[in-house]
From TrEMBL:
SUPFAM superfamilies: Nucleotide-diphospho-sugar transferases. Activates KDO (a required 8-carbon sugar) for incorporation into bacterial lipopolysaccharide in Gram-negative bacteria. It is found in: Cytoplasm. It comes from the Bacteria. This is 3-deoxy-manno-octulosonate cytidylyltransferase. GO terms for molecular function: 3-deoxy-manno-octulosonate cytidylyltransferase activity. The gene is kdsB. It comes from Ideonella paludis. InterPro entries: Cytidylyl_trans, KdsB, Nucleotide-diphossugar_trans. Keywords: Cytoplasm, Lipopolysaccharide biosynthesis, Nucleotidyltransferase, Transferase. Its EC number is 2.7.7.38. Pathway: Nucleotide-sugar biosynthesis; CMP-3-deoxy-D-manno-octulosonate biosynthesis; CMP-3-deoxy-D-manno-octulosonate from 3-deoxy-D-manno-octulosonate and CTP: step 1/1. HAMAP family: KdsB. It catalyses: 3-deoxy-alpha-D-manno-oct-2-ulosonate + CTP = CMP-3-deoxy-beta-D-manno-octulosonate + diphosphate.
C-alpha cells in the first residue's frame, strides 16, 4: 500500500520548552520520532512544523521537513496545509504521528494505515486499547471510545463510557466484567480529501464541549474505523519526568 506519515511539531510547550528539540541520546526528539516511524514502509515521512529551528534540525539529520503557518488551531489544520504543500491526492492516505512519541510502535502505525486501506466505508482510522482500571476509566484526561459492531467509533469522550449501570456504585464507574472499556490512542490515518475539508468545517458543539477535535469528523458524518490492540503503547513526552524516562530507555538500548 501507499501512504505518507506526517509528524506535526510545534515549538510551543508550557510544560517542556522547546520540546521537539529535546536531546534524546544525541538527537532531537522529533528526529527520533521520524527515524522510528521510517520503519513502517511509508512512501515518505515528513515533519510539518511552524518553526525554522525544528525544520533546520530535521534537515540536518536527513529528515524531510516543511514549514506551515504558526496560527493553526489544531494539528489536523496543520496536516491539511501539509497535504496541499505535498500535492497529495484526495484518495491518498496520511498517518498522523505526534512529534512527542519517540517510543511509538511502528507496527501500530502500520496497523492504522492498513485498516483505513481495508475500510472504504471510513474516512479516518485510529486505535484503542482496553482500560485496565477504574481509575483510568474515571480520569477525564484519559479519552474513551465506544464502538459499533463493525468496529467503527460511536463516540469519543472524557467521561466514563460505557457506563455499567448495574456495576456502578455511588456515581463511580467500574469496569464491566465481560466488556472492557477502551482507551483511545491519539494516532490517526486519514483520507487526504477528508483531511483537507477539516479546516472548512466549523468547530462542532460536541468537539468544543469535550475538547476533542476528532468529534468534528463524526459531527460531519464521517466514519472512524478503530484498531483495537491488546497492549497500551509507550507514553509520550509531556513533562521533564517523561523526558527523563525516555532518555533512560534509549540509554539502555
Amino acid at each position: 500500500m501507499s501512504f505518507t506519515v506526517l509528524i506535526p511539531a510545534r515549538m510551543a510547550s508550557s510544560r517542556l520548552p522547546d520540546k521537539p528539540l529535546a536531546d534524546i541520546g544525541g538527537l532531537p526528539m522529533v528526529v527520533r520520532v521520524a527515524q522510528r516511524v521510517a520503519k513502517v514502509g511509508a512512501d515518505q515521512v515528513v515533519v510539518a512544523t511552524d518553526h525554522t529551528r525544528i525544520a533546520d534540525a530535521c534537515r540536518e539529520h536527513g529528515v524531510p521537513a516543511l514549514m506551515t503557518r504558526a496560527d493553526h488551531l489544531s494539528g489536523s489544520d496543520r496536516l491539511a496545509e501539509a497535504c496541499h504543500a505535498l500535492n497529495l491526492g484526495d484518495q491518498d492516505i496520511v498517518v498522523n504521528v505526534q512529534g512527542d512519541e519517540p517510543l511509538i510502535d511502528p507496527a501500530l502505525v502500520r496497523a492504522c494505515a492498513d485498516l483505513l486501506l481495508q475500510r472504504p466505508d471510513c474516512a479516518v482510522a485510529t486505535a484503542a486499547h482496553p482500560i485496565g482500571s477504574a481509575e483510568e476509566l474515571n480520569n477525564p484526561n484519559v479519552v474513551k471510545v465506544v464502538l459499533d459492531a463493525q468496529q467503527r467509533a460511536l463516540y469519543f469522550s472524557r467521561a466514563a463510557i460505557p457506563w455499567w449501570r448495574d456495576g456502578s456504585q455511588a456515581g463511580v464507574a467500574q469496569l464491566p466484567p465481560q466488556h472492557a472499556a477502551l482507551r483511545h490512542i491519539g494516532l490517526y490515518a486519514y483520507r487526504v480529501g477528508t483531511l483537507k475539508r477539516f479546516p472548512t468545517w466549523p468547530a462542532a458543539p460536541l468537539e468544543l464541549t469535550e475538547s476533542l477535535e476528532q468529534l468534528r469528523f463524526m459531527w460531519q458524518g464521517e466514519r472512524v474505523a478503530v484498531h483495537v490492540t491488546d497492549t497500551a503503547p509507550a507514553a509520550g513526552v509531556d513533562t521533564p519526568e517523561d523526558l527523563a524516562r525516555v532518555r533512560a530507555v534509549f540509554a539502555a538500548a
